[in-house]
Amino acid sequence: xxxxxxxxxxxSRPVGEPKATDFRVEDCALPVPGAGQVxxxxxxxxxxxxxxxxxxxxxxxxxxxPIGGVMEGGTVSEVVASNNAGxxxxxxxxxxxxxxxxxRGRPDRENQGCSRRRHRGR
Length: 122
Fold this sequence. Notes:
The protein is mainly β. The chain has 1 helix and 7 strands, in the order E-E-E-H-E-E-E-E.
């Protein structure tokens, strides 16, 4: 496994339709899972209309993605490393990893990890 990951961050608030220049692809170090955490590899990313609202800093039911922050998004991910007894390497999980190839999560904290629904992989 490579020690590098990629993420897409918001670099400006879109005016009208989002453009490629409103985002930046960044290379970053692969996150290392701490105690109780898992390392996830994104398999599928859900792109949904609500994301446009998260790019704006206007009034909304949800906080905006900060400038320089990883874009929000639901994912289907594979557990590639685990320090959590409830999850094993190869598990396929639902998570809120966002627009990045890898993410570190803590499954027992809402919106920081992955759901308990899982499928044992390989």
